[in-house]
Amino acid sequence: MIQTFINLIGRAFGLLMVVCLGLMVLMVFGNVVLRYGFNSSITMSEELSRWLFVWMTFLGAVVGLIQHAHLGTDALVSRLPAVGRKVCFVLAHGLMLAMCWFMFDGARQQTIINLQSTSAVMEVSMAWLYGSGLLFSVLAALVIVHELWKFFTGQLPDAELIGIVGSDDMPHGLSPVAPGTDAAQAKERT
Fold first, then answer.
1. Which of 96, 3, 133 is nearest to 11 (CA)?
2. pTM for this entry
C-alpha cells in the first residue's frame, strides 16, 4: 500500500513537472514575442518562471529518489560481500535521513522567516517558495524510511542493495534498469 502511494506520488509529480516546464516555456516565449514584437511584457513571467523552476527541481528530486535515478557510484559497494552491501545500504540511508532532517529544519526556518515577506512582482508570500524544500524533505524521508522498512523486514532483494541506476559500464544501445521494476526482476531471472 505504501509502495502504491509512493508510485502515485512519483507519477503525479512527473505530470506536475511537465506542467511547470510547459508554463515556463510559454511564459518565456510569450515574453520574448511581446518584448520584441509589441514593446511590452508580462510582468510576472520572470519571477513565476523562477518559482516554477525551483518547485520543478524539488519535485524532480523526489521522482529521482523514487526511481533510483540519482547520481551515485557503486565502485566499492558492488565489490563488497552481501554483509558489506547491507551495512553500506543502512549507513547510506541513515545519512540520507540525516540530510532530510537538515533540509527540513533549514526550509522550515526559512519558511517561518519569510512568512511575512512577499515577492517583488507577484506579491505572494515567500514562504511558498521555501515550502518546496519542506515538501521535498518530508517526501524524501518517507521514501527512504520505506526502503529501510523493506530492508529490515526482508522484502528488499539483494539486487536492490545498490540503489543507483548506472549506465557507465553498459554497452551502447542498452538502457539501465531501475531496481524494483518489472524489467529489473525479469533481468534477474535470466
1. 3
2. 0.80
Residue 156 DSSP class: S
Output the nine-digit C-alpha cell for 55.
518547485
Given pLDDT bands bounded at 50, 70 and 90, which one contains residue 174? very low
State the cell numbers at 148: 529501510
Nearest CA among 5, 129, 9 for reference residue 62: 9
* DSSP structural state of residue 75: T
pLDDT tens digit string along 129-171?
999 999 999 999 999 999 999 999 999 888 777 766 655 544 4
Q: Are 73 and 151 within 8 A, CB to CB?
A: no
Most distant CA pair in the chain, distance: 67
Radius of gyration for the chain, computed over Cα atoms and rounded to the nearest angstrom: 20
Give the separation between CA 89 and CA 174, rounded to whole angstroms.
26
**Each residue of 119-136: b (16+ CB within 10 Å) or e?**
beeeeebbbbbbbbbbbb
What residues does each domain of the chain span?
2-163
Q: Any idea of the CA torsion for 102, 103, 105, 110, to the nearest 10 degrees?
A: 140
Cell of 156: 528488499
**Burial class of residue 20 in the structure, from the number of CB atoms within 10 Å of its CB (0-12 exposed, 13-18 middle, 19+ buried):** buried
